[in-house]
């Protein structure tokens, strides 16, 4: 006997081993051996056990090992062997044959079982085998374990499989088997493991489990099975795992779970089950994982579920359950519960304000429930919470400052709500996002049930095997958040995803973002940001998605780092931005320089620019006042009030500015262009001349400019200034109130603009 497993051996298998002619057992598994098998091994006629698994071996097998006439256990799994399956076999005393996780090909050969009448364990999984199982006919009497998973085998299960009475473990997952499961399944009374997931089995499951008293693991997920649950499953008293997810099963979940006291994992997700949850499920006191997501279940969570003291993972998402408050009152007694997913239930209910328990909760998801209310303070007592999803609800109020005290939180999704107020500075105190070493690595999904992250409702979602693999994220998009971005955000060095899009955030982009070296996604789109894009963001080498679209940014777009890879859509809706990706900066600067006078005319032009700022400020103030007045009338009056107010808005603006004699600029004939002239020539910004405006900039019709604006004031030398005034007016009249700039934002932007122009002039 020579056992050298896990010794870190490298290189080739020495040929000298062939001279140990009395050797009966050789174990070289779990090393780094490579190359082919030496032909001298064939001379070891007394060899009974050969284990070469988990190495990097390659080359031929059949000819080299053909002389092992005494071999009983041959394990060459997890190597790099490539050979036709037909060449293998011819071992008369073979009991264990394991060639899994290689690249053997062809159909399953009959030579293995025909030459060895006593084979008990046959593992051919994770290869490239094709065809049906006819070649295993001679194995039926003695076979105890048959593993064929992850190949390309097909056809229906042959009848002789159901006559393999000694079979204890049968695994054929991830193949192309089809047809119905036979009621002859009841003959396999010794069966402990039945794994048939990832195939194309269809039809009703046979009600043939009463005789399978030893069955511990039944996994048939991801097939096309239909019909009700077989009632005889209740006789499988030793069953630990029942996984039937992702089929087309129907009817109520009406098994008598009292007869299944050993059940640890029950996954019936993604079927068409209906009706209430069964009370008898609470008799499975050892139940740790329960997933009934994506069904048509209704009613309340039974009070008896409070007895599930071992429950760790519960997912009831995408059903029609009601009474969230009652559900939490029940589930708070499940003191070991670490993952609770209730997404798309309890539609339109109020989120409970007072809840106890859940001290061990690590993942909580109430997404897409249209819940009302505010972010509840009881979440602060969930000290171990790492993932919190309250997205796609109707929550109002502000983001509470105590969120920063949740030391383990690294994934926060408050997107698509109606949250207001500023981003609290305390959000930058999240320890798990400040340092990766602070994150808790122990979060796992039970029983291999995948968890999904969805960035929008239509997406299928990204699957993760464990919650700790989620990208550290803060998702606050599509709310009504205002204020500025706190510069302290740069402390969150382990943050990977930050989405602040579609809010009312103003101010500039802090330079501190350059310190967030792990950022992969950064989205500021559809806000009211101004200033420039900090060139320091070029340091973010992992950034794969970036968007500042539809803001008020100006200046040159950075060109270093990842910025060269971002599409132009990442910057659109910012007329003041320039760069290689969109409009070249030299072209814009050249346009700005045209017609700029010198000397005393330059001073006169600066006075005109300041006049523009004052005029636009007064105009915007008036518009805001009208909007506020309209909102107050909307609260008191009916829909007709809104319609009247909306239609008169441009008229009131024009009336307010028509008498203004403030000069915008002079045309080529030295005629002053006033605000009143601009309003008159565009017919109060009539939509006949302006196709659309707002986040994607001013879009003019196909008419020539002189046909859009009165020729009396049109001057090609000043077309850029003229259309900039139109663009500002468009932003003020945007149909989306969230995109209309605030007065202080516009004033600060225009003041900054005037300083830039003043320097140029």
TrEMBL record:
Bilayer topology: Single-pass type I membrane protein
Organism domain of life: Eukaryota
Any Gene Ontology CC annotation: plasma membrane
Transmembrane domains' residue ranges: 607-628
Main location: membrane
PROSITE patterns: LRR
GO molecular function: ATP binding
Matches recorded under SMART domains: LRR_TYP
Cellular compartment(s): Cell membrane; Membrane
Alphabetized SUPFAM superfamilies for the sequence: L domain-like, RNI-like
InterPro entries: Leu-rich_rpt, Leu-rich_rpt_typical-subtyp, LRR_dom_sf, Plant_RL_S/T_kinase
Keywords: ATP-binding, Cell membrane, Glycoprotein, Leucine-rich repeat, Membrane, Nucleotide-binding, Receptor, Repeat, Signal, Transmembrane, Transmembrane helix
Family the entry assigns: Belongs to the RLP family.
PANTHER family: LEUCINE RICH REPEAT FAMILY PROTEIN, EXPRESSED, LOW QUALITY PROTEIN: RECEPTOR-LIKE PROTEIN 2
Protein name as annotated: PHYTOSULFOKINE RECEPTOR 2
């Amino acid at each position: 006997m020579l056992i050298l497993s896990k010794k870190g051996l490298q290189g080739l298998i020495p040929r000298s081993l062939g001279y140990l002619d009395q050797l009966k057992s050789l174990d070289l598994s779990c090393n780094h051996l490579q190359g082919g098998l030496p032909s001298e091994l064939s001379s070891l006629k007394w060899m009974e056990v050969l284990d070469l698994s988990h190495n990097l071996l390659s080359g031929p097998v059949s000819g080299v090992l053909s002389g092992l006439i005494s071999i009983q256990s041959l394990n060459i799994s997890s190597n790099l062997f490539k050979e036709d399956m037909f060449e293998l076999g011819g071992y008369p005393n073979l009991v264990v044959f394991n060639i899994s996780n290689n690249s053997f090909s062809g159909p399953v050969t009959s030579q293995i079982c025909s030459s060895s009448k006593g084979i008990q364990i046959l593992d051919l999984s994770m290869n490239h085998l094709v065809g049906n199982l006819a070649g295993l006919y001679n194995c039926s009497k003695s076979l105890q374990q048959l593993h064929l998973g992850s190949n390309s085998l097909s056809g229906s299960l042959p009848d002789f499989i159901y006559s393999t009475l000694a079979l204890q473990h049968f695994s054929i997952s991830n193949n192309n088997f089809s047809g119905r499961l036979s009621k002859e399944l009841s003959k396999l009374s010794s069966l402990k493991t039945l794994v048939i997931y990832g195939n194309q089995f269809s039809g009703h499951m046979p009600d043939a489990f009463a005789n399978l008293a030893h069955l511990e693991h039944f996994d048939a997920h991801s097939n096309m099975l239909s019909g009700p649950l077989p009632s005889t499953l209740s006789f499988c008293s030793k069953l630990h795992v029942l996984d039937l997810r992702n089929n087309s099963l129907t009817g109520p979940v009406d098994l008598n779970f009292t007869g299944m006291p050993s059940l640890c994992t029950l996954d019936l997700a993604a079927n068409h089950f209906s009706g209430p949850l069964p009370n008898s499920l609470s008799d499975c006191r050892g139940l740790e994982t329960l997933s009934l997501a994506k069904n048509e279940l209704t009613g309340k969570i039974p009070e008896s579920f409070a007895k599930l003291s071992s429950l760790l993972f519960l997912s009831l998402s995408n059903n029609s359950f009601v009474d969230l408050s009652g559900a939490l009152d029940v589930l708070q007694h499940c003191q070991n519960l670490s993952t609770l997913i209730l997404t798309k239930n309890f539609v339109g209910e109020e989120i409970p304000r007072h809840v106890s328990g859940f001290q061990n909760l690590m993942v909580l998801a109430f997404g897409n429930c249209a819940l009302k209310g505010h972010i509840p303070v009881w979440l602060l007592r969930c000290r171990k919470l790492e993932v919190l999803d309250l997205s796609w609800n109707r929550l109002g109020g502000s983001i509470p400052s105590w969120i920063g005290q949740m030391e383990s939180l690294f994934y926060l999704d408050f997107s698509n709500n109606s949250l207001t107020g500023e981003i609290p500075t305390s959000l930058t105190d999240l320890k798990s996002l400040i340092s990766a070493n602070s994150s808790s690595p122990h979060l796992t999904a039970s029983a291999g049930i995948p968890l999904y992250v969805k960035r929008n409702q239509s997406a299928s979602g990204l699957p993760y095997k464990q919650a700790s693999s989620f990208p550290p994220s803060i998702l606050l998009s599509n709310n009504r958040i205002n204020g500025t971005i706190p510069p302290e955000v740069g402390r969150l060095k382990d943050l990977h995803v930050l989405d602040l899009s579609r809010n009312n955030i103003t101010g500039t982009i802090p330079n501190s973002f350059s310190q967030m070296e792990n950022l992969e996604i950064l989205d500021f789109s559809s806000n009211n940001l101004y200033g420039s894009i900090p060139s320091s963001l070029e340091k973010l080498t992992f950034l794969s998605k970036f968007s500042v679209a539809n803001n008020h940014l100006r200046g040159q777009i950075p060109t270093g780092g990842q910025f060269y890879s971002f599409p132009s859509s990442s910057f659109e809706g910012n007329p003041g931005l320039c760069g290689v990706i969109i409009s070249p900066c030299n072209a814009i600067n050249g346009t700005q320089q045209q017609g700029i006078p010198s000397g005393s005319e330059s001073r006169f032009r600066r006075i005109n620019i300041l006049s523009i700022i004052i005029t636009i400020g007064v105009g915007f103030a008036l518009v805001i006042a009208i909007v506020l007045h309209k909102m107050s009338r909307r609260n008191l009056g009916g829909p007709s009030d809104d319609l009247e107010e909306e239609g008169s808005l441009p008229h009131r603006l024009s009336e307010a500015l028509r008498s203004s004699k403030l000069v915008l600029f002079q045309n080529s004939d030295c005629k002053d262009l006033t605000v009143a002239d601009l309003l008159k020539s565009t017919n109060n910004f009539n939509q006949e001349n302006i196709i659309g405006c707002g986040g994607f900039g001013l879009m003019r019709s196909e008419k020539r400019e002189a046909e859009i604006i009165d020729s009396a004031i049109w001057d090609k030398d000043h077309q850029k200034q003229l259309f900039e005034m139109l663009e500002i007016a468009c932003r003020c009249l945007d149909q989306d109130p969230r995109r209309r700039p605030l007065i202080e934002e516009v004033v600060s932007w225009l003041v900054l603009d005037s300083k830039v122009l003043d320097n140029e002039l």
